[in-house]
Structure formats: structure tokens, C-alpha cells
Design brief:
Strand order of the largest sheet: 10-9-8-7-11-12-13
Radius of gyration: 22 Å
Helix content: 25-40%
Structural class: alpha/beta
Order of helices and strands: HEHEHHEEHEHEEHEEEHEHEHHEHHH
Shape: globular
CATH class of the largest domain: Alpha Beta
CATH architecture of the largest domain: 3-Layer(aba) Sandwich
Number of strands: 13
Largest sheet: 7 strands, mixed
Number of domains: 2
Length: 340
């Protein structure tokens, strides 16, 4: 081969993978948890200037493809694709391909059998991204054979904090989604001493939460992202716990990742009172600096007394969030692509 032609071939081989589309399952997966996922996908699409690829995985799900993933991959896209994956072991068939870069949102595998299934399910992907730093470090410690990198979850740029932000706070406290039993008990104790406290909390009804304020007024299910974020902006303090804390979610296998709700509280200008174990994910998100930790009721009470009458430092929040917008994660992905 002539030297000039050889150089062209080598340059082509060294050229980083260029994402050409963002896979989305929004037409098939319409649960509330997918709202923020769709927003992440939109940011990736906008920043990379590539289209969304609407994956009709339910159609493949109804066929023999589910039992023959290698066959399903023949009918999946061949274009370089980035995809968020909600549940690594339950993701649709067909995505284990050399042109797809998946990012795991929830990773809770510790059992050896589950780990082996995970390795097999993604062994053809050139790069597998893990959103939780704790889970990523665990996989490194057990010598995961996949090419893994850490790509943290984020807050969509559409919610970007401006230092001139001013919001009317209607409620003292908000507790959204699955409620930590210890924080709930602390709040009930505190309210006995402070009956004028205003708050919003929810009761689970099926797969949804019906929210009421402290006066018993029904606020609804807050199913839309707009309603969900609006109630945070109207609240002064958000109560937060990592999912495995205090037996909150029994399927996390001891993992305690920081979930998007923490960033949603911060971007909404809420103080955060939190319960969490110290791990590399809580360190990554600087929970010790950005929250008031409540290991005891006395700590909770002290934090409530202080924060109910204190404005957040919008400049500090703005500086913190500058590292956690989704567009920042796009740039991290581009850096990783140069390494494969």
C-alpha cells in the first residue's frame, strides 16, 4: 500500500466515533420517570446537532427477537447512536451493537449471575457508560470486562439558573416522590412544634403520587414536568434521601446513587435537607456541601429552624450547577469518544 494511502487509512482508523442520532423510547415508554430522560435526549440532540431516533422496541418485543437478541440486532439501527438505558437488565433486545453507546441510569447489579448477564448484554458495545460513580467504582473493583466510563446524570439546560432569579415561595417544605420514612417522621415531629408550617407531600396511589398541602388541599398528581418543577420552585426546602437509604427501595442492593431529584431541588432554588450514606456518588455531587445532613431529629430541627428563614445563595447554586447541566455531559461523551 502506498504511504499516502496508508496514512489516509490510519487517519480514518484513528477518527473518533461520531454520534449521528440519539435513541429515544418516548413513544413506547411514557412513565413519569422518563420525563427527564426525554429532556436529556433533547439536549444531546440539540448540542450534537443530530436527530432523535424513535425506537419501536415494543414491536420487536412481541416477536421471537426477545429470545434471540442477536437476531433483534439485525433489525436495529446501524447508525452511530447514543442511548440512555433505564434498567440495564430489562432493556429491549437488539441494542448490543458496535454502533451503539448506552448509558445506564439505574445500575443495581451485585449478584454474580446478574453481573454476567449484564456483561453479556453489552459486550458488543464499544463503550458502556455508568451514571452512578458508586456503581462505576464497584464495577472497576470487580474487574468488569466491558469498556466502561462514568457519565453522571444531570439537569437539563432548560432549567438553567440565572443569578437574578426570584421566586415566590408559597410552601416551607416539599417532599416529592417516594418518601423517606425517617425524614417523614422528622417532619411530623417538627410540625407538632410548629403547627403553622406549610408543606406539600404525596400519598402513593398505584404507580402515582397524589399530592396535598398541609391544609389538606389536593394539588393533583403533578404528572407533567411543568407541574412537578413548579411545586419545587414554590417551596423553600426540599427533603431528599438517596434511594437505598433507610430501606427506601429494597432492589438497590445497597447502592445509593444520587438521583435527579437532588439537582431538581437545587435548580429550583430549594435548600435541601438530606439523608444519605457517604459514597463516591454523594462525594461527586458534593452533598456534604450542598445539603444539611439530618442523621438525627436534633440535626433536622436545627436545619429547619435555620433554613425556613434563609435565602439560598443563588451565586453559589449557579456556580455549582455549571458543572451539572446536560450540555456538560455531552462534552464529556465527546471526550470519551476520542478514546475508543
Amino acid at each position: 500500500m502506498p504511504a499516502k494511502q496508508k496514512r489516509k487509512v490510519n487517519d480514518r482508523l484513528r477518527r473518533p466515533m461520531k454520534i449521528a442520532q440519539i435513541l429515544t423510547s418516548r413513544d413506547q415508554s411514557k412513565g413519569k420517570d422518563y420525563g427527564i430522560v426525554n429532556e436529556w435526549e433533547d439536549v444531546f440532540s440539540a448540542v450534537l446537532k443530530v436527530p432523535l431516533y424513535h425506537d419501536n422496541w415494543k414491536r420487536r418485543d412481541k416477536t421471537v427477537f426477545w429470545k434471540l437478541p442477536w437476531l433483534a440486532s439485525c433489525f436495529q439501527t446501524n447508525v452511530p447512536t447514543f442511548a440512555y438505558v433505564m434498567l440495564p437488565l430489562a432493556s429491549p433486545p437488539g441494542n448490543n451493537k458496535s454502533n451503539i453507546i448506552p448509558c445506564m441510569i439505574d445500575f443495581f447489579c451485585r449478584d454474580e449471575g446478574e453481573l454476567q448477564r449484564f456483561y453479556k448484554k453489552y459486550d458488543r458495545n464499544p463503550l458502556v457508560l455508568i451514571s452512578s460513580k458508586e456503581a462505576y467504582d464497584y464495577l472497576v473493583s470487580v474487574r468488569c470486562p466491558l469498556n466502561i466510563r462514568h457519565l453522571a446524570l444531570s439537569i437539563p439546560d432548560r432549567y438553567r439558573v440565572e443569578e437574578s432569579m426570584t421566586v415566590e415561595r408559597r410552601y416551607d417544605v416539599v417532599m416529592l416522590g417516594r418518601q423517606n420514612k425517617v425524614l417523614k417522621t422528622f417532619l411530623e415531629q417538627y410540625r407538632q412544634k410548629h403547627p403553622d408550617l406549610t408543606y406539600v407531600s404525596g400519598v402513593k396511589e398505584g404507580n402515582r403520587f397524589l399530592y396535598r398541602d398541609s391544609n389538606g388541599n389536593v394539588l393533583g398528581y403533578l404528572d407533567s414536568r411543568a407541574e412537578y418543577m413548579d411545586i419545587m420552585r414554590k417551596s423553600r426546602i426540599g427533603l431528599y434521601a438517596t434511594p437505598g437509604m433507610d430501606g427506601g427501595r429494597d432492589h438497590t442492593n445497597g447502592f445509593n446513587p444520587v438521583t435527579p431529584r437532588f439537582l431538581e431541588y437545587i435548580v429550583s432554588g430549594c435548600h435541601v435537607i438530606a439523608r444519605y450514606p457517604t459514597n463516591s456518588d454523594t462525594d461527586y455531587y458534593e452533598l456534604e456541601r450542598m445539603t444539611a445532613k439530618a442523621e438525627t431529629f436534633e440535626q433536622f430541627e436545627k436545619a429547619m429552624d435555620e433554613l425556613c428563614n434563609k435565602e439560598v445563595d443563588v451565586h453559589d447554586y449557579s456556580q455549582y450547577l455549571a458543572n451539572h447541566y446536560t450540555s456538560v455531559r455531552v462534552n464529556t461523551l465527546l471526550k470519551y469518544l476520542k478514546e475508543i
